Amino acid sequence: MITIPYPKGHKIKVRNKIVESAAQAFRTNGIQDVSVPFIMKGAGLTHGGFYSHFNNKEQLVAEACRYAISDTIALLQKVADEENHPPPIHTVIDYYLSPYHRDNTEMGCILPALSGEISRSSEEVRQVYTHELERMIAFISNLAEIDASKGSALFSTMVGSLTLARSVNDPELSATLLSSGKQYAKELVKTLT
Amino acid sequence: MITIPYPKGHKIKVRNKIVESAAQAFRTNGIQDVSVPFIMKGAGLTHGGFYSHFNNKEQLVAEACRYAISDTIALLQKVADEENHPPPIHTVIDYYLSPYHRDNTEMGCILPALSGEISRSSEEVRQVYTHELERMIAFISNLAEIDASKGSALFSTMVGSLTLARSVNDPELSATLLSSGKQYAKELVKTLT
DNA sequence: TATAATATATTACGATCATCATATTATAAA
DNA sequence: TTTATAATATGATGATCGTAATATATTATA
Q: Domain-by-domain residue ranges, chain A?
């Protein structure tokens, strides 16, 4: 009676591809600068089918943010597990404030790229963003073995340094922002009460 | 022979009003979300005359950034001069990471609001932005009596804390981001080498 | 193979954008 | 008061956006 015209799970897979495409595009070009047709093309589709997957662009923004931040936490966890010599939090700080992470925004943390725009987004999007940021701060605090208050200051330093390092034109200033951010972040972990 | 139909300095005054209108609008709503007609309306004009003042929107963005950051440095200088009891840098940190500054973006520092978008702007805009950020870091370093490297870490912490505090939905987390940012920024000034 | 149902593509709509061409207004000088 | 011209307004253009309606393509089942 009931026929299933496409393979089971097909739509979910396509939907995930759209979210992945959006997450990558948003990190590179912001939210407002990325159009629905562009996102759909990135997922190998045309724009028409978009609204059979999402109610509107805002809903996709929320899902893409959740996906991107979860993805970054998982990546940082992997980075922390890789090296055993320095404290794991040092490895994560070094990665987060590396030239590689600065220069490859499409694969990197979404927070420095989008926090400004998120402040002006819908409550739905901010709700998701808040929850994921809480998870990120918990992850960082746990890794550094500090409380959440200190952890939020640590992560703020990391985000601020990366944000500014990406915004400037001068390679030397950008390098200074990264390295001084690294140094202070590490000292913050052990020095401050 | 040569007649001057409008009062001397009239056009410059109007041009400045456009830049002020843009600076305020960009801080509140970002660059891409603010249209030329909207900016012109904010200056009491219609959109048509825009291109007799500026070659394009990008040029206005650069000028508005320069204006806004200079304006903020001047404001912070005033804040520093107001109170004499605590070290001036503490007064500035307290102001920068206050709920008032977080909640009144249209009058506040442009850097947390726009750094993400600036990363994806033209070289012309990034050039101006870089120069003004250098001035800001010099101002902060001088006020805190620390070197520019440490000053850039300090300012990164301030920017990161304010950016994240503005992006989240939860008042408690936002307050934590502000207060822990304040605390560690102050400790950074005196503690770290 | 034919059918039914669903996923995707094509096309269209109204809005808004940056930009530009042209018309109108305002005012200093004659 | 008239005139010349700079400053501003009006209106238009082509592009692109988010969104929706409709047509086509796809494939598990009968």
A: 58-191
* pLDDT tens digits for range B135-190: 999 999 999 999 999 999 999 999 999 999 999 999 999 999 999 999 999 999 98
Q: Which fold has domain B57-191?
A: Tetracycline Repressor; domain 2 (1.10.357)
The 10s digit of each residue's pLDDT in B102-128 is 999 999 999 999 999 999 999 999 999
Nucleotides of C under 7 A from a protein CB: 3-12, 16-22, 26-30
Q: Which of B116, B130, B173 sits opposite A117 (nearest CB)?
A: B116
Measured at the CA of A147, the angle between CA A113 and CA B149, to 5 degrees, comes to 50
Contact A163, B117 (CB under 8 A): no
Confidence class for position B83, pLDDT limits 50, 70, 90: confident
A106 touches chain B (CB under 8 A): no
Closest nucleotide relative to residue B4's CA, C1' based:
C28
Cβ contacts of A102 within 8 Å, gap of 6 or more: A108, A162, A165, A166, A174, A178
In the CATH hierarchy, which fold is given to the domain comprising A58-191?
Tetracycline Repressor; domain 2 (1.10.357)
Strand D footprint nucleotides (protein C-beta < 7 Å): 3-12, 16-22, 25-30
